[in-house]
């Protein structure tokens, strides 16, 4: 008995396979002839109630059919004819969505004035509707692990070298791209990590990542240091002699080392389509538990998040925090040979900006702003070009008055107190600037450590900003 059932099942499977292969191989001419044969001689036709109206291309409900004996009207609309009403015969078989639009080369694809009005539309193969292929939109996504990614189907993600992590609301999976030493970036939003990340790396050598433009419209890279922990500078001149992070191939960027987790950097690639950038991490010297995870985002030209020319850091939003590289109130040291501009995007209906030094709960004397002086010898606030010839921060027309922006206005400050009043040693002030665009120009020379009496222990700066509304 069991053997009989098995044989019967095999016969059914073979019959279905033969039937499917025959149906799938028929073209639209076959179905057109069948349709015409079926309806030849019938006086009842699908005809618009308005004889002047053309029958538009219908968008039919999936697998729907009028019940036997029922009559009705299907309202067919298109951009060309929005009021055409068509009478549906009792035996009309409505087609699923995948059978609605045939290829332009098919004989069934005709102008409405040429085709048989009874012909709704035919497909090259009626089996295609069973296997609709939905293309996944490659939109940004947030993975289940908290990383930024791009939506792809799982197979395409794997082919491109990514790892799926969570799903996308619009379909597909969130695909995260992560590369290490010797890697090549070919996808936007790629993470550059140390070997065996998230485990630390304590070896020596050079780790490079090459970044290609994913699109000719890309003008910049934004490097977000989700993690950047390298050994710090030597303490004689605060230079990065052991570990260092560098960028070549784009605009000039400073050499940095130490800890800059949470900071970022913009690299200008220009408008040449074949420009490459190379990110390099060099590790040398004593054993140290280093780790890095740098998100590489590619920024198109001329967007509202494209950094202005010459801005190494670019902050957006009404509020934010600006820090120098390797800043830390406990262990950070101001790096030598820094020379760059930080910019704040002017938000709509805002005309000024307020700066305050970040809170310092570690040191008795706040060191959130310490460019010159030392941890043992305070010099207080220092202002002006003559008094700040080596290390400085330039903020155009910086004042301690929000009412009169030009009152006690200075451009260049240094020292170890955030103030525009020379010699003030106690407390940091709330300062304002109403000069747009909002910029901060930071400079240090090559003598920053213990080699100079008034340079040891400086941290750099950390400033909070709040944009001021126009009045």
TrEMBL record:
SUPFAM superfamilies assigned: Spermadhesin, CUB domain
Keyword DNA-binding set for record: no
Disulfide bond annotation, renumbered to this chain: 240-257
Signal peptide location: 1-25
Protein name (database record): CUB domain-containing protein
InterPro entries referenced in this protein's UniProt entry, alphabetically: CUB_dom (IPR000859), CUB_metazoa (IPR058698), Sperma_CUB_dom_sf (IPR035914)
Upper lineage: Eukaryota, Metazoa, Ecdysozoa, Arthropoda, Crustacea
Region (Disordered) location: 41-62, 91-113
Keywords assigned by UniProt, alphabetized: Disulfide bond, Signal
Transmembrane spans: none
All residue ranges annotated as the CUB domain in the record: 181-299
Pfam families per record: CUB_animal
